[in-house]
Amino acid sequence: MLIRLFTLIFLVLSFAATSFAQGSDPKPLFDQLADANFNQAETLVGQIAATGDPRVVPALNAFSEGDLYFRKSDKAVFSAKVAGSQLELIDPVTGESAGQVAKGAVTKIKVNNNLRRAIRAALGGLTLMSPDRGARLSAADAILRSPSAEALELVEAALAKETDADVKARMEEARAVSLLSSDRSIDEKRAAIETISGLGAAGLGVLNSVSGTIDHSLKPDLDKAIASIRNAQQLWNLAQNVWYGMSLGSVLLLAAIGLAITFGVMGIINMAHGEMVMLGAYSTFFVQEVIRNNAPGLFDWSLAIALPVAFLVTGLVGFVIERGVIRFLYGRPLETLLATWGVSLILQQAIRTIFGPTNQEVGNPSWMSGSFPLGGMTITYNRMWIIVFSLTIFFALLFVMKKTAYGLNMRAVTQNRRMASSMGIRTPWVDALTFALGSGIAGIAGVALSQIDNVSPNLGQSYIIDSFMVVVFGGVGNLWGTLVGALSLGILNKFLEPSVGAVLGKILVLVLIILFIQKRPRGLFALKGRAVEA
Amino acid sequence: MITGFILRALEGKIVVAVGILLAVAILVPALNLLTAPDSALHIPTYVMALMGKYLCYALLALALDLVWGYCGILSLGHGAFFALGGYAMGMYLMRQIGSRGVYGNPDLPDFMVFLNWKELPWFWYGFDMFPFAMAMVLIVPGLLAFVFGWFAFRSRVNGVYLSIITQAMTYALMLAFFRNDMGFGGNNGLTDFKDILGFQVQAGGTRAVLFAMSAIMLALCLIVASAITCSKFGKVLVGVRDAESRVRFLGFRVENIKLFTFVVSAMFAGIAGALFVPQVGIINPGEFAPANSIEVVVWTAVGGRGTLIGPIIGAILVNAGKSYFTGAFPEFWLFALGGLFIAVTLFLPKGIVGTIQHGWNARKALKAAAAAEKGRDAGAAPTAQQAQAAE
């Protein structure tokens, strides 16, 4: 009696369902699953999907999860949820509850991986018609990932109705991918291969998977497409490596550029340079702490505020070091090295005593986080800004050196101190300011490096050797040399990394620099003339 | 001829220093082994181990002084030679463990078993033999110094550039030794030593002998260094330090002179490392850290570069200070060390011994001048009379 009532309700419901359905009624197709073997089930899934009825999506999902059952009494098919010791049956099309039954009253419809694949493809096809643009896009993507001949008609149907250009393009690709495994004509397939060759890595997988079964006359086209994808991939890889290299190079440039002034122009071996970078990073931390506690709304501006703070703090420290220690040691470069090393130990320990030995948390402002895709590669915002930032600093510095009166004085003092002094330039003052400028720029570098590195008292230590390498490699006393040196070392490092690993790559770069210095003891762009022997 | 060479080396101060070192080599182990633990004269084993360590550092500082103080090459990579010597000794000690390791493998050290290596890499061959290992203690650092110096001195890389690339050298070696695939124990280095030449490394007697050996080797190296610096070659060496171009124009092959000194110095450093490892019981890549090498420079600078005794005194003083500070006020050690760097370069550029020597010489010169003045006054009067008489 109860059963008959159910059948009745069921009939009514299924009648109602038909009225919504775009194609034929999916309900009987579901019911046929009860007796079907795996192959038949696969066909049925295709047919269910072909109805284009979006209401079957949950039931198909349930099927692939293994939650589809048929009732032993009437072979009606339901998806089911566990409800206590019983199962709650749910109509596959309407999604309405059909009462609870004992577990013994139903039989699970078996599912295997082939079938799951078919279901996934079918689901992809179904959501192609969804009114939601995002859903359509992801449906096209799903087909791209697991193409099947069954999806082809669905895609074509969807294509005919599609109006959005982006979605349409994606669907064209999905169509091409599905077409390859269907039984369409050779010409259509040739056109499809053409489309797929623009797809990159995803297309490569599809082409490789059909290369065994495809018609022989298409083989040359296929190989050409595969080759062109491979080429494109290699190019993108190259571009990506160059980008990573530039990114590392810009970090090196940031770390080295202050040193290019103190060591390169003034000839002071400033071993405390790394600590200036560290002080800059701690200034950023300090500024952010103040902002967090007092004006959280300004957080996105924290770096902009930290820049002048870091410049002033480290510039001042540099000024004090020059007046207090270094000015007694001009003309004795090796002693300067030792004294500044002492300064660096003191600064490290001072920071450790004040802030503690652990890493400090420095946040990224919102415009520094995230990434965007560019062709076949991903570009993170913080790396991009650091490249922009390092180049900006470089050119600003170049401007100060070449175009301002102060820069002129500075160059005069470094080229011929006594002559400059005779011309009325206050050389001690210029020395102090130049050292302060170099230190200040190291501090600014610290602000940027705080975004990508751990801010700890040891921060500077990890940059000092690299910075010296860059300056020496590029050529002492030449800012352009520092730029070229930093970028080429960065790129070289990143190109060595994939083949030999990060650490060995770094070792190789160091060895190469050591060998390079034997060949050109004055670096890439050596200063010519008498200044060399000074 | 060689005895003459050495006898010439043994001038006053060096004789005293060698005598003191030999006395220490006998007295300290004797006071450690033969006196009762509660006796006032007893030297506890840990103090002896600490002093042994200082002696190794002193030898390292002496090695640096030979190239820096006498030849003007400021090497910031001497820690690398020290560590290489240490690794050579460590490899010998590793092979002596045999099947007593955690994994009980008779052929492979524990870390190789752990890395799933099946056989001994070729560069470990022969390290089970003591003479071979000892030869390597000299050869490996010497060879590295030779190759490095060959390239660097030939292309006339000098001054700060040389300092910076020696620093890069030790940094690259540090990175390399940190890698597990290198086959030197990676991060953990070599440790857990059992015995040396059949004697237990930890036993009191072995420690005493190792201590005595450190003092004796330091004395020996001091004699060799003194022989080098007091010879004619030593004069040229100082010439290279003070005016390299002039020495070159006089017809000397400056690069060969530098290379010889650099290699000898690297070997000294290797010996220091080899003596250091069994006394502290571990060698790891941290020894290659550039900071360590720079610290050696300050020991030498504090003691006085260009004096052979100075670096020995400097190394012992600074390290004793370090032991005291890191125990008593760990926060302040780096302040003290940093301050020391600055103070020495600003106020004591000749170091302790150099300053004393300078003062001594100045007083002597003053006295001599005063004496000469007197003599001339006394002698000048009659000559004047004679001159008048002649007129």
TrEMBL record, chain A:
Q: Name one GO biological process term.
A: amino acid transport
Any idea which GO molecular function terms this record carries? transmembrane transporter activity
Asked if the record carries the keyword Signal, the reply is: yes
Q: Which InterPro entries match?
A: ABC_transp_permease, ABC_UrtB_bac, BCAA_transport_permease
Q: Which UniProt keywords apply?
A: Amino-acid transport, Cell membrane, Membrane, Signal, Transmembrane, Transmembrane helix, Transport
The protein here is known as: Urea transport system permease protein
Looking at the UniProt entry, the stretches that span the membrane are 242-269, 301-321, 333-351, 384-401, 428-448, 468-492, 499-517
Cellular location(s): Cell membrane
Q: Classify the protein's membrane topology as the record does.
A: Multi-pass membrane protein
Give the similarity note.
Belongs to the binding-protein-dependent transport system permease family. LivHM subfamily.
Which residues constitute the signal peptide according to the record?
A: 1-21
List the lineage, top down.
Bacteria, Pseudomonadati, Pseudomonadota, Alphaproteobacteria, Hyphomicrobiales
Q: Which PANTHER family match?
A: ABC TRANSPORTER PERMEASE PROTEIN (PTHR11795:SF447), BRANCHED-CHAIN AMINO ACID TRANSPORT SYSTEM PERMEASE PROTEIN LIVH (PTHR11795)
Q: Name one GO cellular component term.
A: plasma membrane
Q: Which organism is it from?
A: Rhizobium wenxiniae
Automatic annotation (TrEMBL), chain B:
NCBIfam families listed in its UniProt record: urea_trans_UrtC (TIGR03408)
List residues traversing the bilayer. Answer: 12-31, 43-64, 71-94, 129-153, 160-178, 208-238, 259-277, 297-320, 332-349
Query: Is Ion transport a UniProt keyword of this protein?
Result: no
Species in which this protein is naturally found? Rhizobium wenxiniae
Which InterPro entries does this chain map to? ABC_transp_permease, ABC_transptr_urea_perm_UrtC, LivM-like
- GO molecular function (one): branched-chain amino acid transmembrane transporter activity
Q: What name appears for this protein in its UniProt entry?
A: Urea transport system permease protein
Q: Which GO terms describe its cellular component?
A: plasma membrane
Enumerate the subcellular locations listed in this protein's record, separating them with semicolons.
Answer: Cell membrane
Q: What is its main location?
A: membrane
**This protein's record includes keyword ATP-binding:** no
Keyword annotations for this protein, in alphabetical order, are: Cell membrane, Membrane, Transmembrane, Transmembrane helix
> What does UniProt list as this organism's lineage?
Bacteria, Pseudomonadati, Pseudomonadota, Alphaproteobacteria, Hyphomicrobiales
